[in-house]
Design brief:
Helix content is 54%, strand content 14%. With 255 residues, the protein is α/β, with parallel strands linked by helices. α3 links the parallel β3 and β4.
Length: 255
């Protein structure tokens, strides 16, 4: 997380050298017989569900928290006691006190497995999984046996899935977030700044360890250089959307 969002990092895949690094990882390093395409820039995953409103980073220390992947290292670095659980085990673990809080994915996925029934505090915004996208994979031999035009159809279909999937996500996630607030009585708030800052500090330590792998460092350095240039342009140029929202919908934002 260097300041670029998921859409901008997906652009790095296509125009910043990411596609070539991805092929190097698949075919040269891992020796996998696959060809893949990235699609659907995922919105930032929320910090998650809590039994109380979190107002400072100090409240997270010692908290039993569910997450997965590299996010476990980020949260452990902030002093949380992390447990990695599959989605189906989250609710029973929370009810039994095995965990105190958890993150899963988005308002739609979270509400569909009943997060709102066991917790009423939902914190949005986080750096633990802030810029991701999906991966569509084909068998390399099968893919390369197809006529060139059919290969192109599959590749561009993956690109087309960006618009379809992201559009669906914006519609569904926003609807389900409103339902959580208005019908389920969930207290939705934005993650405090000191927690976000602590996450970035933790990322620094995690990256320092991961960068000992030469290929990992090559990928991270490429993403960092891309983010420095692209995020600079976007942050400097983008309209102040929060200002406009508050102008037309005053008092709606919970922060």
């Amino acid at each position: 997380m260097f300041g670029a969002n998921a859409s901008q990092i997906l652009a790095w895949i296509h125009f910043g050298g990411g596609k070539e690094l991805y092929k190097e990882l698949q075919n040269d390093i891992l020796k996998l017989n696959v060809i893949g395409f990235f699609t659907m820039p995922m919105p930032t995953q929320p910090l998650g569900w809590f039994k109380f409103k979190v107002t400072s980073v100090d409240q997270l220390k010692g908290l039993k928290y569910r997450t997965v992947g590299l996010a476990t290292d980020i949260m452990q670095g902030m002093g949380l006691k992390v447990t990695q659980l599959p989605g189906g085990e989250i609710m029973p673990a929370l009810e039994k006190g095995v965990i105190d809080a958890f993150e899963f994915n988005n308002p739609t996925a979270d509400s569909r497995f009943g997060a709102q029934d066991v917790s009423k505090y939902y914190m949005l915004s986080s750096y633990h999984q802030a810029a991701e996208f999906f991966e569509i994979i084909f068998n390399k031999d099968k893919f390369e046996s197809l006529p060139n035009e059919h290969q192109a159809i599959l590749e561009y279909s993956a690109e087309a899935a960006n618009t379809a999937s992201y559009g669906w996500a914006m519609d569904q996630y926003s609807k389900d977030l409103q339902k959580l607030i208005k019908e389920d009585g969930v207290n939705v708030s934005r993650t405090p700044q000191d927690i976000l800052s602590a996450q970035l500090d933790s990322w620094d330590e995690v990256l320092e360890k991961l960068n000992k792998d030469p290929f990992f460092k090559k990928v991270v350095d490429s993403q960092r250089a891309w983010s420095e240039r692209v995020a600079f342009y976007d942050i400097l140029n983008a309209a102040d959307y929060k200002l406009a929202y508050e102008h037309y919908f005053p008092g709606k934002l919970p922060f």
